[in-house]
Amino acid sequence: MKRTFTIGQMSKLNNISVKTLRYYDDIGLFVPYEVDEQTGYRYYSIEQFKKLDMITFLKNMGVPLREIKRKVEHSTVDEFIEVLAEYKQKNEELIEDLTRMNRLLHQKISELESSKDHRVRNQTNVDFYPERSIIEVRGRFGKLDDVEEVLRTLKKQVSAKSPIMVGTVGMVVEQADVFKSESVDYSAVFITLDENQEESHDKRKVLEEGFYAASYVKAQESRSPEVYQRILESIENAGWKPDGPFLVRTIVESFISHKEEEHTREIQMKVKQ
Protein backbone atom coordinates (compact mmCIF):
# COMPACT_ATOMS: atom_id res chain seq x y z
CA MET A 1 0.00 0.00 0.00
CA LYS A 2 1.35 3.40 -1.03
CA ARG A 3 2.18 5.67 1.89
CA THR A 4 0.14 8.87 1.83
CA PHE A 5 0.12 12.18 3.68
CA THR A 6 -2.74 14.44 4.68
CA ILE A 7 -2.77 18.01 3.44
CA GLY A 8 -1.77 19.15 6.94
CA GLN A 9 1.22 16.81 6.97
CA MET A 10 2.17 17.90 3.45
CA SER A 11 1.99 21.50 4.59
CA LYS A 12 4.33 20.97 7.56
CA LEU A 13 6.81 18.75 5.73
CA ASN A 14 7.21 21.19 2.82
CA ASN A 15 6.71 24.48 4.66
CA ILE A 16 3.80 25.42 2.40
CA SER A 17 0.48 26.64 3.75
CA VAL A 18 -2.63 24.48 3.50
CA LYS A 19 -4.31 27.38 1.71
CA THR A 20 -1.62 27.33 -1.00
CA LEU A 21 -1.89 23.57 -1.46
CA ARG A 22 -5.66 23.87 -1.85
CA TYR A 23 -5.18 26.65 -4.40
CA TYR A 24 -2.70 24.52 -6.36
CA ASP A 25 -5.33 21.77 -6.42
CA ASP A 26 -8.08 24.16 -7.55
CA ILE A 27 -6.07 25.37 -10.55
CA GLY A 28 -4.87 21.89 -11.44
CA LEU A 29 -1.21 22.63 -10.77
CA PHE A 30 -0.62 20.12 -7.99
CA VAL A 31 -3.49 17.73 -7.33
CA PRO A 32 -3.63 15.15 -4.51
CA TYR A 33 -2.80 11.52 -5.18
CA GLU A 34 -6.29 10.68 -4.01
CA VAL A 35 -9.33 12.30 -2.42
CA ASP A 36 -11.60 10.49 0.01
CA GLU A 37 -15.04 10.57 -1.62
CA GLN A 38 -16.86 10.53 1.71
CA THR A 39 -14.83 13.07 3.70
CA GLY A 40 -13.27 15.09 0.88
CA TYR A 41 -9.87 14.78 2.57
CA ARG A 42 -6.89 15.16 0.27
CA TYR A 43 -4.01 12.68 0.42
CA TYR A 44 -0.60 13.02 -1.22
CA SER A 45 2.01 10.39 -2.04
CA ILE A 46 5.73 10.57 -1.27
CA GLU A 47 6.44 10.46 -5.01
CA GLN A 48 4.81 13.90 -5.34
CA PHE A 49 7.39 15.61 -3.15
CA LYS A 50 9.83 16.13 -6.04
CA LYS A 51 7.13 17.71 -8.17
CA LEU A 52 6.20 20.10 -5.37
CA ASP A 53 9.88 20.95 -4.86
CA MET A 54 10.19 21.86 -8.55
CA ILE A 55 7.02 23.98 -8.46
CA THR A 56 8.36 25.85 -5.41
CA PHE A 57 11.75 26.31 -7.07
CA LEU A 58 10.27 27.75 -10.26
CA LYS A 59 7.89 29.98 -8.29
CA ASN A 60 10.80 31.36 -6.25
CA MET A 61 12.62 32.06 -9.51
CA GLY A 62 9.73 34.28 -10.57
CA VAL A 63 8.06 31.92 -13.04
CA PRO A 64 4.26 32.53 -13.11
CA LEU A 65 2.06 29.66 -11.93
CA ARG A 66 0.34 29.36 -15.32
CA GLU A 67 3.76 28.87 -16.97
CA ILE A 68 4.75 26.32 -14.32
CA LYS A 69 1.51 24.43 -14.91
CA ARG A 70 2.14 24.32 -18.64
CA LYS A 71 5.68 23.00 -18.12
CA VAL A 72 4.60 20.46 -15.52
CA GLU A 73 1.92 19.08 -17.85
CA HIS A 74 4.05 18.95 -20.98
CA SER A 75 7.65 19.91 -21.51
CA THR A 76 10.82 18.76 -23.25
CA VAL A 77 14.35 19.26 -21.95
CA ASP A 78 14.94 22.01 -24.50
CA GLU A 79 11.74 23.81 -23.51
CA PHE A 80 12.62 23.56 -19.84
CA ILE A 81 16.10 24.95 -20.47
CA GLU A 82 14.51 27.82 -22.40
CA VAL A 83 12.25 28.68 -19.46
CA LEU A 84 15.12 28.56 -16.97
CA ALA A 85 17.31 30.71 -19.21
CA GLU A 86 14.55 33.30 -19.60
CA TYR A 87 14.04 33.69 -15.87
CA LYS A 88 17.77 33.56 -15.20
CA GLN A 89 18.05 36.67 -17.39
CA LYS A 90 15.14 38.34 -15.58
CA ASN A 91 16.73 37.62 -12.20
CA GLU A 92 20.06 39.03 -13.38
CA GLU A 93 18.27 42.23 -14.39
CA LEU A 94 16.54 42.33 -11.01
CA ILE A 95 19.86 41.88 -9.21
CA GLU A 96 21.31 44.72 -11.28
CA ASP A 97 18.39 46.99 -10.36
CA LEU A 98 18.65 46.10 -6.67
CA THR A 99 22.41 46.67 -6.71
CA ARG A 100 21.86 50.11 -8.24
CA MET A 101 19.21 50.98 -5.66
CA ASN A 102 21.44 49.72 -2.85
CA ARG A 103 24.25 51.96 -4.11
CA LEU A 104 21.87 54.94 -4.12
CA LEU A 105 20.74 54.10 -0.59
CA HIS A 106 24.35 53.85 0.61
CA GLN A 107 25.13 57.21 -0.98
CA LYS A 108 22.05 58.83 0.56
CA ILE A 109 22.78 57.47 4.04
CA SER A 110 26.34 58.79 3.80
CA GLU A 111 25.12 62.24 2.73
CA LEU A 112 22.54 62.40 5.52
CA GLU A 113 25.13 61.37 8.10
CA SER A 114 27.43 64.14 6.87
CA SER A 115 24.60 66.69 6.99
CA LYS A 116 24.10 65.89 10.70
CA ASP A 117 27.69 66.83 11.46
CA HIS A 118 27.42 70.55 12.17
CA ARG A 119 31.21 70.78 12.14
CA VAL A 120 31.18 70.49 8.34
CA ARG A 121 28.53 73.18 7.90
CA ASN A 122 29.91 76.11 5.92
CA GLN A 123 33.31 74.41 5.61
CA THR A 124 34.65 74.04 2.10
CA ASN A 125 36.51 70.83 1.30
CA VAL A 126 38.10 69.81 -1.97
CA ASP A 127 37.77 66.19 -3.12
CA PHE A 128 38.16 64.24 -6.33
CA TYR A 129 34.94 63.24 -8.08
CA PRO A 130 34.59 60.78 -10.97
CA GLU A 131 32.84 61.68 -14.20
CA ARG A 132 29.08 62.09 -13.75
CA SER A 133 26.31 62.16 -16.34
CA ILE A 134 23.40 64.57 -16.03
CA ILE A 135 20.42 65.75 -18.04
CA GLU A 136 20.38 69.52 -17.91
CA VAL A 137 17.75 72.09 -18.88
CA ARG A 138 18.98 75.66 -19.28
CA GLY A 139 16.88 78.70 -18.42
CA ARG A 140 16.24 81.24 -15.68
CA PHE A 141 14.59 79.76 -12.62
CA GLY A 142 13.71 82.13 -9.82
CA LYS A 143 10.86 80.20 -8.20
CA LEU A 144 10.51 76.66 -6.90
CA ASP A 145 7.43 76.18 -9.09
CA ASP A 146 9.57 76.78 -12.18
CA VAL A 147 12.04 74.12 -11.06
CA GLU A 148 9.33 71.55 -10.26
CA GLU A 149 7.66 72.03 -13.64
CA VAL A 150 10.91 71.24 -15.42
CA LEU A 151 11.55 68.22 -13.17
CA ARG A 152 8.15 66.70 -13.93
CA THR A 153 8.83 67.04 -17.66
CA LEU A 154 12.27 65.47 -17.31
CA LYS A 155 10.91 62.60 -15.27
CA LYS A 156 8.63 61.59 -18.15
CA GLN A 157 11.62 61.51 -20.48
CA VAL A 158 14.10 59.48 -18.44
CA SER A 159 14.00 55.84 -17.44
CA ALA A 160 11.75 54.77 -14.57
CA LYS A 161 14.81 53.01 -13.17
CA SER A 162 16.33 56.39 -12.34
CA PRO A 163 13.97 57.73 -9.67
CA ILE A 164 14.07 61.40 -8.79
CA MET A 165 15.35 61.07 -5.25
CA VAL A 166 16.40 63.89 -2.98
CA GLY A 167 20.01 64.53 -3.94
CA THR A 168 19.78 63.45 -7.58
CA VAL A 169 18.30 66.82 -8.55
CA GLY A 170 20.47 69.90 -8.81
CA MET A 171 20.46 73.52 -9.84
CA VAL A 172 23.20 75.59 -11.45
CA VAL A 173 24.30 79.02 -10.26
CA GLU A 174 26.65 80.99 -12.49
CA GLN A 175 29.67 82.51 -10.79
CA ALA A 176 28.97 85.99 -12.15
CA ASP A 177 25.40 85.97 -10.78
CA VAL A 178 26.46 85.85 -7.13
CA PHE A 179 27.60 89.45 -7.33
CA LYS A 180 24.51 90.89 -9.04
CA SER A 181 21.53 90.75 -6.69
CA GLU A 182 20.30 90.02 -3.18
CA SER A 183 19.10 86.52 -4.14
CA VAL A 184 20.67 84.23 -6.72
CA ASP A 185 18.65 82.68 -9.54
CA TYR A 186 19.34 79.33 -11.13
CA SER A 187 20.60 79.15 -14.70
CA ALA A 188 19.81 75.45 -15.13
CA VAL A 189 18.14 72.45 -13.54
CA PHE A 190 19.60 68.95 -13.84
CA ILE A 191 19.06 65.33 -12.87
CA THR A 192 22.06 63.16 -12.05
CA LEU A 193 21.95 59.79 -13.82
CA ASP A 194 23.14 56.54 -12.33
CA GLU A 195 26.70 55.69 -13.35
CA ASN A 196 25.59 52.52 -15.17
CA GLN A 197 22.49 53.99 -16.75
CA GLU A 198 22.49 54.28 -20.52
CA GLU A 199 20.06 57.11 -21.13
CA SER A 200 19.78 58.75 -24.54
CA HIS A 201 18.71 62.38 -24.31
CA ASP A 202 19.49 65.49 -26.34
CA LYS A 203 20.17 67.43 -23.12
CA ARG A 204 22.54 64.88 -21.65
CA LYS A 205 25.95 66.22 -20.68
CA VAL A 206 28.93 65.15 -18.61
CA LEU A 207 30.33 66.69 -15.46
CA GLU A 208 34.04 66.10 -15.95
CA GLU A 209 36.03 64.15 -13.43
CA GLY A 210 38.33 66.23 -11.31
CA PHE A 211 38.55 68.16 -8.09
CA TYR A 212 35.44 69.83 -6.74
CA ALA A 213 35.06 72.13 -3.77
CA ALA A 214 32.01 71.22 -1.69
CA SER A 215 30.24 72.89 1.19
CA TYR A 216 27.11 72.03 3.21
CA VAL A 217 24.93 75.04 3.97
CA LYS A 218 21.53 75.65 5.53
CA ALA A 219 18.82 75.42 2.88
CA GLN A 220 17.34 78.80 3.79
CA GLU A 221 20.75 80.40 3.16
CA SER A 222 21.42 78.66 -0.16
CA ARG A 223 20.17 81.57 -2.28
CA SER A 224 22.18 84.17 -0.42
CA PRO A 225 25.00 85.62 -2.57
CA GLU A 226 27.19 85.90 0.53
CA VAL A 227 27.25 82.09 0.86
CA TYR A 228 28.66 81.69 -2.64
CA GLN A 229 31.09 84.55 -2.18
CA ARG A 230 32.36 82.88 0.99
CA ILE A 231 32.89 79.62 -0.89
CA LEU A 232 34.82 81.43 -3.62
CA GLU A 233 36.99 83.05 -0.97
CA SER A 234 37.67 79.67 0.68
CA ILE A 235 38.62 78.17 -2.68
CA GLU A 236 41.10 80.93 -3.42
CA ASN A 237 42.54 80.87 0.11
CA ALA A 238 43.22 77.15 -0.31
CA GLY A 239 45.22 77.80 -3.48
CA TRP A 240 42.59 76.68 -5.99
CA LYS A 241 40.85 78.50 -8.83
CA PRO A 242 37.18 78.24 -9.87
CA ASP A 243 36.68 76.12 -12.99
CA GLY A 244 32.94 76.13 -13.54
CA PRO A 245 29.58 77.17 -12.13
CA PHE A 246 28.13 76.28 -8.74
CA LEU A 247 26.18 73.01 -8.54
CA VAL A 248 23.51 73.05 -5.83
CA ARG A 249 21.89 69.85 -4.53
CA THR A 250 19.25 69.45 -1.83
CA ILE A 251 20.38 66.91 0.77
CA VAL A 252 17.74 67.34 3.49
CA GLU A 253 14.31 68.86 2.86
CA SER A 254 10.91 68.85 4.57
CA PHE A 255 10.11 65.34 3.32
CA ILE A 256 13.11 63.98 5.25
CA SER A 257 12.96 66.23 8.31
CA HIS A 258 10.29 68.54 9.70
CA LYS A 259 12.99 70.48 11.53
CA GLU A 260 13.86 73.47 9.39
CA GLU A 261 17.27 73.79 11.02
CA GLU A 262 18.16 70.36 9.57
CA HIS A 263 17.33 71.33 5.99
CA THR A 264 20.61 71.23 4.11
CA ARG A 265 21.99 71.82 0.64
CA GLU A 266 25.36 70.96 -0.81
CA ILE A 267 27.12 73.43 -3.08
CA GLN A 268 29.88 72.14 -5.35
CA MET A 269 32.19 73.88 -7.78
CA LYS A 270 34.85 72.38 -10.05
CA VAL A 271 38.29 73.79 -9.24
CA LYS A 272 41.77 73.74 -10.70
CA GLN A 273 45.23 74.72 -9.54
Automatic annotation (TrEMBL):
Any one GO molecular function term: DNA binding
Q: Which residues form the HTH merR-type domain?
A: 4-74
Membrane-spanning segments = none
* UniProt cross-references to InterPro entries, sorted A to Z: DNA-bd_dom_put_sf, MerR-type_HTH_dom, MerR_fam, Reg_factor_effector_dom_sf
**Where, if anywhere, are coiled coils annotated?**
77-115
Q: Which SUPFAM superfamilies match?
A: Probable bacterial effector-binding domain (SSF55136), Putative DNA-binding domain (SSF46955)
One Pfam family recorded for the sequence: MerR_1
| Keyword annotations of the record | Coiled coil, DNA-binding, Repressor, Transcription, Transcription regulation
* Protein origin, superkingdom: Bacteria
Name of the molecule in the record: MerR family transcriptional regulator
The organism encoding this protein is Halobacillus litoralis
